[in-house]
Amino acid sequence: MTLLRTMIAATLWLGALSASYGAPDSTLEVNTLSATEGFDITGSFVVPLTPCQSYHLLTDYDMERELPGVQSIKHSRVASHKIRLQRELEERVLFVPVQIQSVIEITEHPYRGMDFVQISGNARSYKGQWRLEPVEQGTLFKYKAHTNPGSIFPDSIARQVVEDSLRRNFSAMIEIAFRRQKDLRSQCL
Description:
With 189 residues, the protein is of the alpha+beta class. 26% of the residues lie in helices and 44% in strands. The chain has one domain (2-181): START domain (Alpha-D-Glucose-1,6-Bisphosphate, Chain A, domain 4).
C-alpha cells in the first residue's frame, strides 16, 4: 500500500482527473514514462487566463481543498518565496480507500511557476515543477515531475492510478480557473 500511496500523493499535487468538471479540456494531456527508480510524469493544459492570473491560481494553496480526494491541507510561508504544504488525501484504488500524507516544500517563481519537493510522506521521493507560458488562448500550465512511490503494486497499476488522478485534478483546476476568472482579474490590475 505504501507504494500506491506514494504514487497517488505525487499525482495529486495541484498535483493535480477521470471525472471531468464540465470545463473544456481538449488541451489536457497527461503522460507517464518508466524511469530509473520510479517514473516521470508530464502534463499540461491551457486556460483563458493571463500569466498573472494563472500564477495567482497556482499559488492559491487553499484552492487545493476543491480538488478531488483532498481531505485536509495546511500551508505556511517559510521564506519570501518558499511554502511548506502539508496534505492529507484519500484515493480509491479498486474501491479501497487509501490515505496519503505528504509535506511538500514549494519554491515560487513569480509569474513563471514553481518547483516542489516532498520532504516527508508516503512516497520514497517526489519532486517536480509547474511552469506557466503565455499562449494565444491564455496560459499553458506545464507540469513535470518524478516520483518513486515505493509501493507493493506493480508499476503499471501505479502509473494508471497516477494518470487518472492527474486527469481529475487538472480537469478540476480548469473548472476552477473558469469559475474564478473574474476574481483573478482583479488581483492583476
